[in-house]
Amino acid sequence: MNTSHPGNVGAVARAIKVMGFGELVLVQPRFADVLTQDETLAFASGATEVLERARVVGRLEDALDGVQFVVGTAMTPRDFGPPCHAPRALFEELAARPEPPSLGLVFGSERYGMANEDVYRCHAVVSIPTAPDYGSLNLAQAVQILAYEWRQALGGFAVQGRTKAPDLADAQAVQGLLTHWQQALEAVGFLDPAAPRKLMPRLNQLFNRAGLQSEEIHILRGIARAMQAAPKDR
What we know:
There is one protein chain. By secondary structure, the protein is α/β, with parallel strands linked by helices. The protein has two domains: 6-153, Alpha/beta knot (3-Layer(aba) Sandwich); 171-229, Helicase, Ruva Protein, domain 3 (Orthogonal Bundle), CATH 1.10.8. The protein has helices at residues 6-18, 38-44, 48-53, 60-63, 87-95, 116-119, 139-153, 171-187, 199-210, 214-229, and strands spanning 25-27, 55-57, 69-73, 84-85, 103-106, 124-126. Strands 4-6-3-5 form a four-stranded parallel sheet. It is elongated, with a radius of gyration of 30 Å.
């Protein structure tokens, strides 16, 4: 409501898009053309379709058309206002309902937050837990946090871009490496074959814990070859 900085509008569009939401309503923004200003578009960083679909209205009640549960944002509770919650607990409770309601998040002006009369229109208020000595959040940052929490309550998204499973070496390759290292350690005088103690079993466990990949087997065998080829007397 009463947004004063075009960059914040663009950043908010970006914040909600990455969480899979697309409805943005501005109530009496400072600039009538805020949705098309260069700074807004720059901060949107590709979320221009959110700006294209966004609405500008003159009253909060017009922005809440179709919203079943209205959540305001405030650092401190208001007298006689709706109950104040931490976002995660409230969103999890809403999402757990047989039919989760359509949710509307209301953010106040960057300069003075939400007016009391607007807070009273909300079903609940959330306050983002912050460090006790510094709780100042930029508008877009607050939107990003709450959009993330609501998305997580709804089930979240699968992590994208998972790396390919490593090509782990099989047990035979590990044992071949172990034999090669035993020969190399004997060649450099580190291992006495007459009194090996527990060195090789310990190396065996080390290699198993490491979960060596095939390429790493090749590297370690190359080191063993270099040890075997090293001059015996220096």
